[in-house]
Amino acid sequence: MRTTQLYAPTLRETPAEAEVMSHQLLLRAGMIRKAAGGVYTYLPLAWRVLRKIETIIREEMDVAGGQELSMPIIQPAELWHETGRWDIFGEEMFRLKDRHDRSFCLGPTHEEMITSLIRNEVRSYRQLPLLLYQIQNKYRDEIRPRFGLMRGREFIMKDLYSFDKDEAGLDVSYKKMYDAYTNIFTRCGLVFRPVEADGGSIGGGFTHEFTVLADSGESEIVYCSKCDYAANVEKAELKASVQENIAEELPLKLVDTPDMKTIEAVTDFMGMDSTQSIKAVAFQNEKDEVILAFVRGDHDVNDVKLQNAVGAVTLRMADEAAIKAVGGVPGFMSPIGLTKDAKVVVDLSVMEMTNAIGGANQIDKHYCNMNPKRDFTDYLVTDLRLMCEGDPCPHCGAPVKMTRGIEAGQVFKLGTKYSESLKATFLDENGREKPLVMGCYGIGVSRTMAAAIEQNNDEYGIVWPAAIAPYQVVVIPVNAKNTEQFSIAETLYQELQAAKVEVVLDDRKERAGVKFKDADLIGYPIRITVGPKSVEEDSIEIKIRRSGEVFTYGKVDYLENVLSMLRNL
């Protein structure tokens, strides 16, 4: 490809709308352009990157036994009603009606569609296992699309669905996909971690996220400093913080705490530490039921754990009227004195506290000497809090560390959630009808491209992993008006093409500095410079983008060295 023919409109200035590095560089490098909020056109360079990622995915899916198909993007509402997810997805789902007033949605995911297909075709255990996948656009009406391709309304995704006759078969399929995903992200040149995660709206049981490590990532993950435990912070398991020296339980005592509605204010007033206090957070679910969560004063409520514990579809912060309706007083809440209409959920560590400080559900009053095991009634006890750095690993007890990352893929064990609701069954070896056992495995293709940039960039631009770079090499004549330099550059370009190297010849009549800046911005892994020394001394300069190393070779041996570099990048 010649640069004069390449459609890659680079920008010198960073657009004001671009917040994260991948968004900035994709715009500046002439790879994407915004069509609407969360909707982008992929320009030729980005499309080449996406196709390379897709090729890697296809190769690994096929090796694992996957078969590619293509399902409709427009899905009938009836299928979603059968699983009960038409309402669960809420406003995030794009909904439309046809001319006959029938309801459809633009597919945010395809569990319903694939299960509907299989229930009509698979009848015997002899047809199992099945691994079926597709790569296509998905649509979700994000309330606030942001960060470019990281959170958009339209995105490219690979989704594979496994169908097995039993849990043992699902284990095999899950392991195949786990290993395939490990291979995919490794081949893409990314640093990543598979972490235990929450299933979210997809549901099911066991699941792992494949998280590309990057400081700009929205996912916060914890990992053990000694063993291989790693989890999304929403999923990270915690055990009760048991007090070593248990004090004698003192009588419950009501104290005046005028205008002291925060943990800090109350503990300062009482001359105590926040670890001795009980924090209350009030929520309402989709049925407007009030759910009161209680954690230790130095801890934070994990909304996802709470949602799973009470079986809520959605949670939002409770309004003051709802809190008062169940006997609560905002700023002064505890489980003591609430009506039975409130759902009370208490963290494990709270139940191990003695003589703690907590709200009295009376204005300007708190209790001291609160002992949950003695004083609380009608409550659910569960692991409810967010894990913090330094907390003990649930597997080995060593302190955990925290980092950030970008969720690029996720593998789920769905079990029979969808097959039961959609009545997708088969006949086993004994002729008995059983529901299919399913798994779901997704990779955000466009998000993986953005994640690669978040992890691989410098002050000059993108530093692509060689396997997914749009082109491998760029050849730059320092002075394109110099016929000798340009002739040598043209010869190198032809030789590299003959050697099956993906190469760009920057044949623009621009200053060398402009061409060098664009090469660094776009992120070609290898830059070959043809300058005066190339004419005078038969010298070819080769620069590796990632390391900045510069090598000089003659015209005779430059090619074998370029090929060697590409193999080792």
Note down, in words, how this protein is organized.
This protein is an alpha+beta fold and 569 residues long. It has 3 domains: 21-236 and 402-454, Bira Bifunctional Protein, Domain 2 (BirA Bifunctional Protein, domain 2, 2-Layer Sandwich), CATH 3.30.930; 253-382, YbaK/aminoacyl-tRNA synthetase-associated domain (YbaK protein, Alpha-Beta Complex); 471-568, Rossmann fold. 27% of the residues lie in helices and 29% in strands. The protein is built from 16 helices and 31 strands. Strands 3, 7, 8, 9, 10, 11, 12, 21 and 24 form a 9-stranded mixed sheet that branches. Strands 16-14-15-17-20 form a 5-stranded mixed sheet. The protein has a 5-stranded mixed sheet with strand order 28-27-29-30-31, with helices on both faces. Strand 1 (32-36) and strand 2 (39-42) form a beta hairpin.
Give the topology:
Blueprint: H1 21-28, E1 32-36, E2 39-42, H2 44-63, E3 67-68, E4 74-76, H3 77-83, H4 85-88, E5 95-97, E6 103-106, H5 111-119, E7 130-139, E8 154-164, H6 167-187, E9 192-196, E10 207-213, E11 219-224, E12 230-232, E13 253-256, H7 263-270, E14 278-285, E15 290-296, H8 303-310, E16 315-317, H9 320-325, E17 343-347, E18 356-362, E19 365-370, H10 372-375, E20 380-382, E21 400-415, H11 417-421, E22 425-427, E23 433-435, E24 437-444, H12 445-455, E25 457-458, E26 461-462, E27 473-477, H13 483-498, E28 503-505, H14 512-522, E29 526-530, H15 532-536, E30 539-544, E31 550-554, H16 558-568
Parallel strand pairs: 3-7, 15-17, 17-20, 27-28, 27-29
Antiparallel strand pairs: 1-2, 4-6, 5-6, 7-8, 8-24, 9-10, 10-21, 11-12, 11-21, 13-19, 14-15, 14-16, 18-19, 21-24, 22-23, 25-26, 29-30, 30-31
Subunit structure: Homodimer.
Catalytic activity: tRNA(Pro) + L-proline + ATP = L-prolyl-tRNA(Pro) + AMP + diphosphate
Protein name: Proline--tRNA ligase
